Amino acid sequence: MPSYTLRQLEYLVAVADAGSISAAAGSLHVTPTAVASAITELERTLHTQLMVRRKAHGVVLTPTGTFLYNRATTLLRDAGELQLATASGGAELVGPLVLGCYATLAPTIVPTLTRWVAEQHPSIDLTVVTGSQAELPHRLLAGSLDLAVGYDMGLPAGLDSVVLYEAPPYVLLPEDHPAASAESVSLADLAAEPMILLNFPPAQEHTLMLYADAGVTPNIVQRTTDFELTRSLVAHGFGYTILIQRPASPTTYDGTALAVREISPSVRPAVVRMMWPHDVRLTDRASALVDFAQMNGHLLDPRTRQTGPP
What we know:
The protein has 310 residues and is α/β, with parallel strands linked by helices.
């Protein structure tokens, strides 16, 4: 049997995360002496130095301390999961689950996932956080999210993922635009027209990449960082835009009609993925949500979804 305790490992992780013994003590609601004594006893038990204490400058983990920190983080997480599972006798999924979602995808994806959790696993405490495509992957890697949903664009290394669905870009026009009478529109035909660019990562990069692939330079007259404002400006005749996310209604908040047209010839679609850190073993709760989302992408895709999960 190991002669160290989970409490000692908890204190080690807390000190490493906080950067000092006093700060860790505050977060743990114990005295600095208790934390320092636990670390000293852990070092004595393991016969190695785990951190260098620098007066007035906090602590720095030794290479061995860093190794133990990484292993201890996983062990403490697993211990917490074991406690949650044991409390329910393994009969149901219990505990917290934090899901991040790209802001423009959230209105069409999150309600379906939330409904499924509420109906199938009501003991899961689901928290949803929305954010930008750039923000969410880094929050995953930092450990503040269990899962995230976003586009397969500009993702950092260190993530695993599953495909939920593909999302072809489309042209959004004022209802009375001459091109609205056709079923599809080419980027070349729109090049001289005033364009409103959704300047929100990764939308702008993807849109400009489509024009570059087509050998066309768009006539950008306005940039916005708001999805619905972009739609509203188009509806009121200030230009056209290229979008990926497809609301079910072809009208704006104020009821003004829009025309949705496919791009011809077809362009590369965006891919919507559910992702998580590669080096983190998913909890049973997270695994269940991944399985449901992957198997039911048609319920999440605005082009194909039905009224709700079966």
